[in-house]
């Protein structure tokens, strides 16, 4: 625990929390702060410090009654981090509303609807149980801007953080109706004229945050629901289930002759759909389906879909032929959302199943996206395997090339020249994407082409160049 010391102030009761004992910095990554539970930075000490820093920042910059909502997924370590965060936040005068296990998008929704200054989700998404993370939402329900994260980072790593005096300490209370509010909201995103009455749906909750809400929403909309991955024990989140392990749902769809499967991840912000034949549906196909249907109904803002550089080029060719533009961003749902907000677009997402429908939500929502797919199933009166075949994907290959610490292979001139040569050879027939991973020391090389042989040659040539500089 941080050491503390009295400071002269009103009633002589204000404390100053000094730098953490291990002196290690805490930094935001691409999606909040994440790590192995009970190891830096996912320790109770760090979580306390993070709560102090966030509370100090938002008490200074906002004045909505100094309110925070905290949600979590089903990991055992969530209790530890929740209590530590709450201690830090209340020490700075913030009042904390504890939602318990809820999906990440529910935190974004409730932060805004409950007029909170800050929303906090404790989750490591699709990672195993032994990892955990902390991500923040601003009062508008959107994930914090990087500039705000950097400001909070400075407070976390500052020499000291002042807390409030005893008269102004915040309080914490459980919120009993958070799940109910989210269930009712999700149902409003499904077309009112439609029902799921004739559908049998397998829903895989990944033993995670949506284990209660997802089956309930589908049942209340009329479906026959077959839940799996709905018995969390603190250790089985994402274990052989969920969107990153869809085999369980695939078997259950085939066994029960279901019309479709909806697979969520640990915090339910992404979705993988399984068709009636047991085949997973690529996220690009779902994006293309939703963009095309919203375009046809006049709902697609600026007739444009936002996707990352990793989305298949075949999707772009197909949508362009329909009069729909595709705006590309760097990898990451944060980048997708930033482009959507900046450009005024309302449909975007990634191959992985992070889909953002900003008419409804402020972040990826696997359940809302899954319901849009099921709405198409009902309205088109076709099987999932037919509905999900929107375009012909170009052949795609991905090669990961590791590099040594301290190397910068993408700055190497030979690598740059090779990339230019490869791009020239693919012109009109495909494309090249080379990027450094944000989570591990590897360079990811993706090549697409309508000529499979040319694709393989291009990928290997690029990989050889990167390996030589790594």
Query: What is the total tally of β strands?
Result: 21
Largest sheet: 6 strands, mixed
Binned, the helix content reads 25-40%
Shape summary: globular
Structural class: alpha/beta
Lay out the secondary structure:
Layout: E1 4-7, E2 14-18, E3 33-36, H1 44-61, E4 67-72, H2 77-91, E5 95-101, H3 104-113, E6 118-122, E7 131-137, H4 146-156, E8 160-162, E9 172-174, H5 178-188, E10 200-204, H6 213-220, E11 224-228, H7 247-256, E12 260-264, E13 271-274, E14 280-281, H8 283-296, E15 304-308, H9 313-321, E16 325-329, H10 333-343, E17 347-349, E18 355-357, H11 366-380, H12 384-387, E19 396-402, H13 413-426, E20 430-436, E21 442-449, H14 452-469
Parallel strand pairs: 4-5, 4-6, 5-9, 10-11, 10-12, 15-16, 15-17
Antiparallel strand pairs: 1-2, 2-8, 3-7, 6-7, 12-13, 13-14, 17-18, 19-21, 20-21
Helix pairs in contact: 1-2, 1-4, 5-6, 13-14
Task: Give a brief description.
The protein has helices at residues 44-61, 77-91, 104-113, 146-156, 178-188, 213-220, 247-256, 283-296, 313-321, 333-343, 366-380, 384-387, 413-426, 452-469, and strands at residues 4-7, 14-18, 33-36, 67-72, 95-101, 118-122, 131-137, 160-162, 172-174, 200-204, 224-228, 260-264, 271-274, 280-281, 304-308, 325-329, 347-349, 355-357, 396-402, 430-436, 442-449. The chain is of the alpha/beta class and 470 residues long.
